[in-house]
Amino acid sequence: ITEQSGEVGVIRHGRAHITCLDHEGRESTIELLNEGDCFGEYFLKPLAAQEYVVVADTDCRVMFINYLRVLYNCRSHCENHTELVKDLLRLTAEKAQSLSLHVNVLSQRTLRAKLLTYLGYRRETVGKDTVVVPMSLVGLADYLCVDRSAMMREIRHMNEDGLIRSEGRYFTLL
């Protein structure tokens, strides 16, 4: 995503994530991408010493759209163009909500609060007390910007305290 292509990618099939590589080569997960999600240079504010990379978590099919061509209506003012603009605006709004959630999770002061906030959101999304985290536990630690071993220790303590019941990527909020 470092090149100035002017394109927006839309995940048509599969799952991916965006990582940020800092000047020391450390990787941080910035965003999780599912079917219908979009990515591209217009959605990121890179610093000079950072690089953003989209990594496929499963087999993916991506559609690239030239953003500038979408902004300007075609000469015939066709209905398809209007629908495309509406869809891109909807995707942009959904992206803003996703990033807002990530900021909310990361702003929690403790690891326990980060986990409970994220798991609470997942519970609201699926409408069940048992949720499956859509990434590996290493990926979850990266998404939460915490050390994996510290996260695993906190999950164990939360199990012992009766807040959750967990097995691998499956979590039940009690």
Can you put this structure into words, describing what you see?
The chain has 174 residues and is an alpha+beta fold. Helix 2 (79-106) packs antiparallel against helix 3. It has helices at residues 67-71, 79-106, 111-126, 137-144, 148-160, and strands spanning 7-13, 16-21, 27-33, 38-40, 51-56, 61-66, 130-132, 164-167, 170-173. It starts with 6 loop residues before the first strand and ends with a strand. It contains five helices and nine strands; from the N terminus they run ββββββαααβααββ. It is elongated and about 65 Å long. Strands 4-1-6 form a three-stranded antiparallel sheet.
Tally of DSSP helical segments: 5
Largest sheet: 3 strands, antiparallel
Radius of gyration: 18 Å
Topology as H/E string?
A: EEEEEEHHHEHHEE
The rough form would be described as elongated
Helix percentage range: 40-55%
Mean model confidence by pLDDT: 87
Number of DSSP E strands:
9
List keywords for this structure.
three-stranded antiparallel β-sheet; about 170 residues; alpha+beta; elongated
